[in-house]
């Protein structure tokens, strides 16, 4: 694929989205990923696109004016708490300039969407985006503005395209689902660790949309400690959903917190799933959407051992290459090792250090399998009716 077919959204302004030093959401991962790709000579400057500046109106298509004004005030009056708006909480504390920081990320995802929809590129990537827990009137789970919902709304407003949203973050994509729950032109699909033990607690199989949007929300809550095979077997359901929905564009969220080293979740997957997910999403975008695919970042809290490799693979695969194999470029390792809290992995694939095998493996696989069949039964039944 030539360079004009993909866009990589980046600006150092993305790094302003920073709650405080000890907060798990750390955008240094954006710089780590970009420099890893550059040292592997897999990201040329001609791929890199600066976000355009969009009107605040684009944000107001998803968020209330009241909430947007609160975010502005929180950034000016920091430290401050507006608990009923989810700001100033442990998860989403206020910080100076938080409105501007959140807006840079929104601009990144809007630019990514516009580049694809106006046929300037086939695929685009904004790793700063993917803030799927943002709600119209409140912040949640480290997410201030929901850049995904804003970008999807922009696509709906300006291009009238049918949008398939695919969320593989370990947490349920609750904010995006909420924004389009009654919309038959936006189909949301989320695979995540069951809400029995994990924030935000939603994303049950029975959440299928309401009114006109009924049948256009799909949730695959997988068991804690799910491993690669079962994750990927469940995720393969996306083929049937794409065929059922017939989208014009895919917007995907690529949180990497399903990895077994991630400190915030209980899933037990390896980097292998972060190679397989983009391979399948890209194939579906080619098959159903003339290639139209906007990929975004998301969660990912082991920023040294997991996120840079996982996201570098996403970009590489998006460009039509097979996944990186073998050793990591030593120049990148030498630069970042002094800052890393533990030894950086020196190969692209996991070496299974500190991986503990799971005693309930068979039981977890069977539970996930039954759950997947239950969710897909809806499509089968619908086809019979149609
Ligand atoms: Zn997450």
Description of the molecule:
With 386 residues, the protein is of the alpha/beta class. 38% of the residues lie in helices and 10% in strands. It has twelve helices and eight strands. The chain has helices at 28-39, 57-60, 65-77, 98-117, 147-159, 174-179, 228-235, 237-245, 273-289, 307-318, 330-336, 361-385, and strands at residues 6-9, 48-49, 123-126, 163-167, 186-193, 217-222, 249-253, 293-296. Strands 2-1-3-8-7-4-5-6 form an eight-stranded parallel β-sheet, with helices on both faces. It is globular and about 55 Å long. The two termini are 39 Å apart.
Largest sheet, order of strands side by side?
2-1-3-8-7-4-5-6
Task: Enumerate the distinct ligands.
Answer: zinc ion
| Poorly predicted sequence stretches spanning 5 or more consecutive residues | none
Largest sheet: 8 strands, parallel
Sequence of secondary-structure elements: EHEHHHEHEHEEHHEHEHHH
Helix content: 25-40%
Gyration radius, in Å: 19 Å
Overall strand count: 8
What kind of assembly state do the chains in view correspond to? single chain
Helix segment count? 12
Backbone shape? globular
Structural class: alpha/beta
List keywords for this structure.
386 residues, alpha/beta, eight-stranded parallel beta sheet, globular, binds zinc ion
Describe the secondary-structure layout.
Layout: E1 6-9, H1 28-39, E2 48-49, H2 57-60, H3 65-77, H4 98-117, E3 123-126, H5 147-159, E4 163-167, H6 174-179, E5 186-193, E6 217-222, H7 228-235, H8 237-245, E7 249-253, H9 273-289, E8 293-296, H10 307-318, H11 330-336, H12 361-385
Parallel strand pairs: 1-2, 1-3, 3-8, 4-5, 4-7, 5-6, 7-8
Zinc ion binds next to loops.
